[in-house]
Design a protein that fits this description.
This protein has two domains: 235 residues, Rossmann fold, CATH 3.40.50.2300; 105 residues, Response regulator (Rossmann fold, 3-Layer(aba) Sandwich). Helices cover 42% and strands 20% of the residues. It is built from 14 helices and 16 strands.
Length: 394
């Protein structure tokens, strides 16, 4: 009888968790599609946080964390929604890192996550429209909105002495949202957008699109697209035809894949993507290298942070029930509390278990504002001698 009472009390301490042994966490990223080269390091970043927590043995009385992946494709909202539905109804996850791209993230959130009361933290869905989605307090993101990226992009372009820019964007929520944000900020700063036009992904030939961009002219071409899809096709067409020599690359284009494709052909071009500097990032890069993946890949640190925030919020709430721990995410992400860097999740779990406060910094200098929005910093890069070089952060 005494053993039965002890067992019952132990179970009460971890109410809401799938069991004392296992909590499943979903990862919904575009493992195929226009950003597949980024999805692998992102998933590995999230899984590194989950493993760190599991290995600590300090989450909700000793629970372990098991990742479950689904392919959002980044561009097929129906496939992404079906995948997230499986994570929730079949795999019984307690939270989801994702979506990856704004359109499919919005569809999965509105159609599946919100009706099922599931927390989603996206590392990379940056459309300004996500700031106003009715999410019942269930959606957060560790990357900043493209409303801010448009301002940062404008500053960088202006500092390069460029006053006229042609803009092409992938025809989805992310592309149009960022292109419009940049165009508004650039023109408000005195610049001129000669053309702001969409392109479709998946085409074999972009000569017509490049021709229209060339006719409009400009000192540079801003390619708001995907490095593994139409964005690369536009750049190839522009280089081969001589239409443009200088390119402006936002986050969907910035990565090793861009260098691998074009090498010194894009020397003199530049761009930016969300990333931070300092102790947290350096520690994350070291941990990633030890784990065998490239932590410098875009949104990998943000993915680690997304998983970490959910797990720390569970500890703060005393449950893996998303309808409860969602209210703790902003608390663990911000001051007051002891600052927590990558590799210190076990320490954070101990503090929270003792009733203390943490201020999670992580690999991307997490600071949340508004309704789960990341304040965000950006890494400015330039391309020189066939390599991508970091200029600084802003």
């Amino acid at each position: 009888m005494k053993k039965l009472l002890l067992a019952t009390a132990a179970m009460a301490l971890i109410a809401g968790a799938a069991s004392a042994e296992e909590i499943k966490m979903g990862i919904s990223l575009g493992f195929t599609g226009p950003l597949e080269s980024l999805a692998g390091p992102m998933a590995l970043g999230a899984e590194m946080a989950m493993k760190e927590v599991s290995d600590s043995g300090k989450l909700l009385g000793g629970a372990t964390v098991t990742p479950v992946r689904t392919d959002s494709t980044c561009i097929d909202s129906a496939a992404a929604t079906a995948g997230v539905e499986r994570l929730i109804t079949s795999d019984r996850v307690s939270g989801i890192v994702g979506g990856m791209c704004s359109g499919e993230a919005t569809a999965s959130l509105v159609n599946v996550a919100v009706p099922n009361g599931m927390v989603m933290i996206s590392p990379s869905a940056t459309s300004p429209a996500l700031s106003t989605v009715e999410d019942n307090g269930l959606f957060f993101r560790t990357s900043p909105s493209d409303a801010r990226q448009g301002d940062v992009m404008t500053q960088i372009v202006m500092e390069h002495g460029i006053k006229e820019v042609a803009v092409t964007y992938t025809n989805n929520d992310y592309g149009k949202g960022l292109a419009d944000a940049f165009a508004a900020a650039f023109e408000a700063a005195g610049g001129k957008v000669t053309i702001n036009t969409a392109h479709e992904d998946g085409k074999a030939d972009y000569s017509a699109e490049v021709g229209a961009l060339a006719a409009a002219g400009g000192q540079a071409l801003a390619v708001v697209g995907y490095v593994d899809q139409g964005g690369a096709g536009i750049v190839r067409g522009a280089i081969d035809s001589g239409a443009f020599e200088t390119f402006v690359f936002p986050d969907g284009m910035v990565g090793q894949g861009l260098v691998d494709r074009f090498g010194s052909e894009i020397d003199g071009s530049f761009g930016q993507n969300p990333a931070s500097e300092g102790e947290g990032r350096e520690t994350f890069l070291k941990l990633a290298a030890e784990a065998g993946f490239d932590g410098t890949s875009a949104y990998s640190a943000e993915s680690y942070d997304a998983a970490a925030l959910m797990l720390l919020a569970m500890q703060a709430a005393g449950t893996a029930d998303p309808s409860v721990y969602k209210d703790k995410i902003m608390e663990v992400a911000n001051a007051p509390g002891e600052k927590i860097q990558p590799g210190e999740l076990g320490k954070a779990l101990e503090i929270l278990a003792a009733g203390g406060d943490v201020d999670y910094v992580g690999g991307s200098a997490v600071e949340m504002i508004g309704a789960g929005e990341s304040a965000g910093t950006y890494r400015e890069v330039t391309f020189k001698d066939g390599k991508m070089e970091v200029v600084g952060y802003r």
